[in-house]
Task: structure prediction
Amino acid sequence: MKSPPEEKMKIVTYLWRILGRILAVTGLILMMSGCASVNQESASVSKKDSYLDTPGNKYFNYTRSMEAKKEGDIKEAIHYLELVLKEDPDSLLLKKELTLLYIYENRFETALEMVKQVLKEDPEDSNSLIILGGIEQKLGRLEKAAQAYEEVIMLDPDDEKVYLVLGALYADMGQPEKTLSTYEKAVENFPDSFYSHFFLARAHAESGNRREAEKWFKKTLDIDPELLEPRFELLELYKDWEDQKEAHEETIKNYKEILEIDPDNTRAEMELCLYYHNSGMEKEFMAVAGDLSRKSLSNPDITRKIVFLFLEKKRFDDALVILKGMLAHQPDSSDLNYLTGVVYNEIEESEKAREYLKKVKPESKFFENAAVQIAFCYKDENKVDDAIHYLKEAIRLSPENVELHLYLGAFYEENEDYAEAENTLKKALEMDEKNTGVHFRLGVVYDKWKKKEASIEQMKKVIEIDPMDAHALNYLGYTYLDLDRNMEEAEQLILRANEIKPDDGYIIDSLGWLYYKKGNVEKALEKLEKAVLLVPYDPVILEHLGDVYVALGEKQKAVEMFKRALEHSKDEDNTDLETKIKELSINGEN
Result:
């Protein structure tokens, strides 16, 4: 039975992706060698007598090795198989099995020595030569790998996959002539294989021989007209074609043929849509955009493809062409309006972003995200009051949305309206009393509101609900440090946070400050310098490092840190920092 067209495209794409780089040796073995594990006993390890099932003999050790391998304990499998090999040092089957196990353990040099022993006894063992080539590739010895594959071809010219791997290897070595000649031999030996024709075409394309590439891609399609990948490759060729009229006709022809074979091929339909637009063919553009728009009503994969093909690759102009074409047919689509707003947000056109995001309906799965993005658009324009107003309206439309309450509370906090922030966050907790995000935010609000005890209680609740919440552990530990109380508990909290998130700059800062408070200045220096590398613009961390430099007598470095802290501080009152700089400067150190 023929493979479905989309599966064939995946097969060819997958093979090219695998073969287009140096193969991982285990993948090479699985794809090419056909080497079965040596699960049968060799003649010298056959169970003939009852004494063989006792510990210490060959059969026992071999059985233990196979059991360990099945259980995934490769080290144990190697150990027992090595014991068997000591008793039966001439067994090629055992050596082959050990070679594979060494590879699984990434012991490539050991595997190399073992497979060489096999080839010394049997130099025409093509499977072992393939393994040898794979190991040499993994170790970066490409010439030796190529030599091994050439030997395989001489011994067994009927294995197409070896040609394909060798051709890809020559491409990686920067030897296009050898790449082409290898694939040409493959085509000669396998005239009915679309793989060999496809890779020869790709090799010509990468060498800049566009006409030859076109010829061989078309021959690939003669072998199997339902393949999609060669058609996409032809489309890439036609982008830089010398004959623009021919390229135009061939491009439209190939897109249409792809869609005849696979009517749901979203990539082809979107690319054709763009091609029509860029070619000034507005009638055709609108027809394809309309088809995409209708399909998006029942097929969420359409919008996912837009994200994958355009947003993730930062092709924002192309995304807007597609989205606006689709919106012309479906102007009320929440999904399309949301994505359009996201694109405008990415290109920093806040007003346009808000225009589209506001069209997302409350029943849409994107409503919450859209409302939050609108609020942040206002915030970026220093319009926090407008952000608050919009979030309140969004909550009116979706009153049970806890996340919207959380963000509204955060914006009240930003506005230093701590009473309203508390109110909003408490409403969120009425809906979800175990929401650690809301408890944490409320704790931060209380901290800024100078209600330390209330802040501590909230952080304790977070930890009670989720003992692995590193941020709450760190916040509570640092709060105790700041208050000079519960120092032992503070240390335990911060160390636990550091175990959970060892590369978090804020937690490392707390750890450094803990050591400073304990008088271990050298250790404090080590941690705080690392914290500054991870979070270079935080004024508190910079000031902490400055204090450590003062303690170490490095006053010039201290002034530098205090000045950097002052530069990045958002506080209205920076008297402490200014005083530290002034005092050090008066002492003639700067």
